[in-house]
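LOG
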Amino acid sequence: MPGTPTPLCTALLIDGELVEGCGPAEPILNPATGETLVRIAEAGVEQVEAAIVAAQRAFAGWARTTPQQRAGVLLEIADALQRQQEQLACLEALNCGKPLHLARQDDLAAAIDVFRFFAGAVRCQTGQLAGEYLPGYTSLVRRDPLGVVASIAPWNYPIMMAAWKIAPALAAGNTLVFKPSEHTPLSILALAPALNALLPPGVLNIVCGGGESVGSHLVSHPAVRMVSLTGDIVTGQKILQAASRTLKRTHLELGGKAPVIVCDDADLEAVVAGVRAYGYYNAGQDCTAACRIYAQAGIHDRLVEELGAAVASLRFAGKRDADNEIGPLITPRQRDRVASFVERALGQPHIERVTGAAVHSGPGFYYQPTLLAGCRQHDEIVQREVFGPVVTVTRFEGLAQAVDWANDSEYGLASSVWTQNLDKAMQVANRLQYGCTWINSHFMLASEMPHGGLKRSGYGKDLSSDSLQDYSVVRHIMARHGEHLE
């Protein structure tokens, strides 16, 4: 495992100043060992207020910058991320417990690419037609920034989620108050000095703390024009209720329960490899995880057998970082929550434990990679988001039944279908009620393509030029002019 970089950054960024929080100090843990890495004081109410006021004051100047100017700053941020890549990857590995080599090649690489993408995307925006739609008047449509955006990030991909939220909001001309998860603030705080050197004071503020203290103040403040959250449904509902009082915009990504439809004619080897990788990536702490398999009767038994062996071979909790494929869960509470889901599932006589289904006996907050077969559509383990290394298998006969079951969920973020018949794959993809459907793959993300859900998975898009649309507002400008040329 990576060593602890010293010293760890604990200062918040408020109005161009790096300052220590004046609220209660909370321990930041290493989930792989359970040890306390550092204690970070959360922002006090006055500091949150100061951050919002600073962002509000900085908005007029930042909003007037050109796309070229904003793109230049985003490229400089990408370069800063590149320079600090090794340090930040180490912090991601420590703070999340994930293998260092994965943090380096996946999380940091993705964050850098997101800033570079939005630097280009903001310069390629095109507007709607301008013209005369009433005699004597010329109309044009502008797309302008909203104002102060409060961004609230989750703990599963700290630096990547920071990039997803900060880059499009800045590119669109907004100013921000960014709150990382209280569990995983280390990487963005380490980047804060570089961000502060590149941005005018107040354009980006970073405050730490819990949802009930810091988060609630951000969401309820009348000067905040938009709240962007990646989190769970319950948190999203609370934010919607609070945001309704001041009619602020919301941008919500609220989890998922991705169905994986495996047809009889699927490439079994590819399915097993795909689910082994993307059902358990990041210890299943991913809202797009390939966690809910529907296997057609003709392939079901072979899939369960071969996938069970593959899942049992997943490596974790090893002393050599390079040997590990997945990390621990983020907290003891999350580990125990996952364990309780599996315990209740195995209390059902029809559910079979194929592999795993136990807390790891060593140090850290690990849970064994788990595969459960014999699951039925209305089982809790099939319907609810576990957010851990747990995958279920449900047998189906006809494809229409599998599509109905896949859509019978409160979630609508990600899905996949596996078949060697492209016509069949396209028909299934067209009927699935999910923001993304992969064919013969899963979990592939590109900065150019939108990421977001339907139903209770929320609304709004991360990544792609669609995200720039979400962080801006359409305005109509109409000019009256003379009817005749002199």
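LOG (cont.) second protein
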Amino acid sequence: MNVQIQTVHFDADQKLLEHVQKRLDKLKTFHDKITGVEVYLRLENLSQKVRDKVAEIKVSVPKRSLFAKHESKGFEESFDQAYDSLVAQIKKSKEKMFA
């Protein structure tokens, strides 16, 4: 499984990167044929005052790609919400495969 983590408009600290990597390692338990994962963490400016933290995750499995995006006031929260959404998509996709 090829994992790419990109940060846009900021430099991520080691704690955040470890949190993301730890959660991504668990994806293998939901689907054993994941070929790649792309994570984008970025700051989004709205009206030049509020800076929301946006997490986007794209997971590639044979014959399809799954995508989730979430934004909140913290990167961990944004990533965890997007991750939970992706896990649900993976489970649903796997059910359809075997149905």
